[in-house]
Amino acid sequence: MSEEKKEEKKEQQVVVGRMPYRVSMADVDAYGVMYYSRFFEVFERARTELFRSVGIEYRQIFQQRQILMPVVEAACRYLAPAVYDDLLTVETAITGIGTRGMRFDYRILRDDLPLAVGFTQHIFVDIQGRPVSFGKEIFQTLKDKGLIQGEFKDPEEEKEVSEKLKKLVKERVEGRPN
Asked: Is residue 15 part of a domain?
């Protein structure tokens, strides 16, 4: 096996989802521009749809395992305005899965023009708010579906993998080829 193929197999893949979103009147301010906090609501919808598309339903995780995924860090960089009735495409990527949390990166586009990029960092907690380990199970589900190759590597222990994933997403956001 060539060195390139060996290297490819060692790297985790980024799970990416795409979702359409139409800007509604409820999303915009008095000037007809999408209000900045609405972008975080769109991130949440996209994250939920990404999970659903790979066969993980958050509602079932909560009901069966009583595990929550609160956001502990979030950011959004606004590059251009979205306005009423724009049809947007929201790209969501899982860019890090650790034992006790995960990270999602987002890109919101209108006709391939990036309007906003952002991320949310989540931790896994039980209903009493205590951190719990759940990342290996999500990783295994994604691996079983063929969406991720390789073995689970906790980003806290394997920062190199996490940095490669973040670099890949950054390149995609900036429109550079892989």
From this structure: no
pLDDT tens digits for the chain (178 residues)? 444 444 444 444 577 899 999 999 999 999 999 999 999 999 999 999 998 988 888 888 888 889 999 999 999 999 999 999 999 999 999 988 998 999 999 999 999 999 999 999 999 999 999 999 988 888 888 888 878 777 777 655 555 555 655 666 666 666 655 4
Residue 2 maps to a domain: no
Its domain, for residue 149, covers: 20-172
**CATH number (domain holding residue 49):** 3.10.129.10
| Residues annotated as part of the active site | 29
Of the candidates 97, 126, 120, the one whose C-alpha atom is nearest the C-alpha of residue 45 is: 120
- Cα 98 to Cα 158: distance, rounded to the nearest angstrom: 9
Count up the domains in the chain and report the number: 1
